[in-house]
Amino acid sequence: xxxxxxxxxxxxxxxxxxxxxxxxxxxxxxxxxxxxxxxxxxxxxxxxxxxxxxxxxxxxxxxxxxxxxxxxxxxxxxxxxxxxxxxxxxxxxxxxxxxxxxxxxxxxxxxxxxxxxxxxxxxxxxxxxxxxxxxxxxxxxxxxxxxxxxxxxxxxxxxxxxxxxxxxxxxxxxxxxxxxxxxxxxxxxxxxxxxxxxxxxxxxxxxxxxxxxxxxxxxxxxxxxxxxxxxxxxxxxxxxxxxxxxxxxxxxxxxxxxxxxxxxxxxxxxxxxxxxxxxxxxxxxxxxxxxxxxxxxxxxxxxxxxxxxxxxxxxxxxxxxxxxxxxxxxxxxxxxxxxxxxxxxxxxxxxxxxxxxxxxxxxxxxxxxxxxxxxxxxxxxxxxxxxxxxxxxxxxxxxxxxxxx
Amino acid sequence: xxxxxxxxxxxxxxxxxxxxxxxxxxxxxxxxxxxxxxxxxxxxxxxxxxxxxxxxxxxxxxxxxxxxxxxxxxxxxxxxxxxxxxxxxxxxxxxxxxxxxxxxxxxxxxxxxxxxxxxxxxxxxxxxxxxxxxxxxxxxxxxxxxxxxxxxxxxxxxxxxxxxxxxxxxxxxxxxxxxxxxxxxxxxxxxxxxxxxxxxxxxxxxxxxxxxxxxxxxxxxxxxxxxxxxxxxxxxxxxxxxxxxxxxxxxxxxxxxxxxxxxxxxxxxxxxxxxxxxxxxxxxxxxxxxxxxxxxxxxxxxxxxxxxxxxxxxxxxxxxxxxxxxxxxxxxxxxxxxxxxxxxxxxxxxxxxxxxxxxxxxxxxxxxxxxxxxxx
Lengths: 405, 376
Known about the structure:
The complex is a heterodimer.
Chain A: E1 4-9, H1 12-15, E2 27-32, E3 42-45, E4 51-59, E5 62-72, H2 80-97, H3 101-104, E6 111-115, E7 120-129, E8 132-141, H4 148-157, H5 159-165, E9 182-190, H6 196-208, E10 215-217, E11 223-237, E12 243-249, E13 255-261, E14 268-277, H7 284-292, E15 295-298, E16 302-313, E17 318-329, E18 337-348, H8 357-374, E19 379-380, H9 386-394
Antiparallel strand pairs in A: 1-2, 1-6, 2-4, 3-8, 4-5, 6-7, 7-8, 9-14, 9-18, 9-19, 10-16, 11-12, 11-15, 11-16, 12-13, 13-14, 16-17, 17-18
Chain B: E1 4-9, H1 11-14, E2 26-30, E3 41-44, H2 46-49, E4 56-58, E5 64-66, E6 81-89, E7 92-102, E8 107-110, E9 116-118, H3 122-132, H4 134-137, E10 151-159, H5 165-177, E11 184-186, E12 192-204, E13 213-218, E14 231-238, E15 245-255, H6 260-268, E16 272-289, E17 294-305, E18 314-325, H7 331-351, E19 356-359, H8 363-375
Antiparallel strand pairs in B: 1-2, 1-6, 2-4, 3-8, 4-5, 6-7, 7-8, 7-9, 10-15, 10-18, 10-19, 11-16, 12-13, 12-16, 13-14, 14-15, 16-17, 17-18
């Protein structure tokens, strides 16, 4: 049995009512998922990627299947192009189902079922952005779904799971994060300062085009740029607090305080971030001392220009980022600069246990290395930290101004 | 000859990186019709809006040269990026908006501070302008300042007919994103927010502080440790009567393992009276007043008491609410934009055949009224 996609069209008003039961679909579209990016954890409904082949409609207690000529099923409405396609799709559905396009405005596939020979996975709408709508799995059964009746049974079976998952359907609530207290990243330090903007553009374009197999651009968080100063205090003692405290100014005059704990450079480090702290720069050092209850050393201020591309796995929901940055000392100290690529685990858009965090991290790192090699960028995987950079700048040793590509 | 342009140039200018003469070469294209250079924000698909035939090059020293035929304009992914809107003035250029966000299909240019006048060496002037304001301009999703701190400014509407929140929210979104709400564009980066969550809701009983209002647990959480961790968001709203401005604060990422009422009493220190559990479903459609950078949201929500039989226990309202500002908030401008947006929303509701009236009827009043009606 080839994989089949079922889209039960429900009334969102009824679907979300606190009635204590799953509302039933008005009809179910059966479609081929051939052009659809999907995995065990999520489905990315790009407009133009679903082609209907049959419609199931209720007839008493039975569901009647009717094959149709293929037509595109689109329901995104984020962009003007989405809406144009969705309007055309509603027109086609109206002809097939005998409903009016206006009636169909009130019906939407908030649930999707993907079925193959052994497994049926039930997904729920999670978010929408420029690339389309993303659905996340909340229920699974080790039996195939072959009919709209099976689809309804699956939805009813999954109702209790959905009551927990629906907390995650809210805005910016799709995610969990493995070990929120830890930062998990690998660094590739460049031997010069490459054209990081051209590189991030190319990386982003490749991610959009699906070059990282099984991953899509992270919906609504896919491409970001940053440019800020950081004031760092190295923690000298006690040894249990070894690492640094950093102060990053916010636009509203408040400060983000970051603390990292590490004795030696490592891929996994304890990290905390406190936003919206009211501090004047003259209070930074005292605040750093209080954070560690010990001695600190002020290091040169540096400015970090950072470009991020984030991508999420359809198989697990894990999100990783590849970042290119340029760091330069600022203020009245000799110019030091360096440039680096970081690959980081960010979060997981999943409504089940976290899986493959480490395995997929290796996939992301391998992709980053291949990308750097293709761009002819010389690098070392060396865990070189910002603290190393600032110690060298303070001591006027090590790297000075690196050559531009 | 137009006097207003969009200046394209090297990313190195935006990020204050060292420049060569090549990096200082700019391309200027006529500012497309319909973009008001006096606005606070320009949020446009410039690649689609700009006429490439209107372009010319400006060298590092200000020398103007024609562009070779066949010039192309991109948002992202091009050899240069849209840096600023500029106006030709006698001694050089006046810099108006500068780039703050760049996506494949949209560019966001914004004002930070007053316009900056430059001589003919525009690239150097842009470099300095970005360098001076890199914190507000170059950090993704960071240029927000909330006016009216701790105050919720919100206009509600009672709508006479039962409505389908899903249709109405989508219809408003279409109108907004199609550019048919004059002076407002979707809030780039937070356009559509989907909500449907249960609430544990409590009236604040008589207390030593004299506070009145409600506290609640909203069943959602933005920073969960596990997907099913019992983590929620608390809300506290202090008001003695239904009104347009109320004190409000949310408390994120709260772990509630036991009884919700006990958790809220311990957290807030108030004695509480329980009200029925209810569910709130809506989209928030966020928009930006392009003249000022003030951000608002519009929603059509569907509130239902658990287990009630509609229409009993159902509250349907429209809300218009001030969120925050991209820049320095001005209370006067917030209220002026708020009034304009309300007029747009009212026109929209009329176009949908809805009868409505302005109201400050709160969820607290709704639940108290529901209890009174169902226990008599």
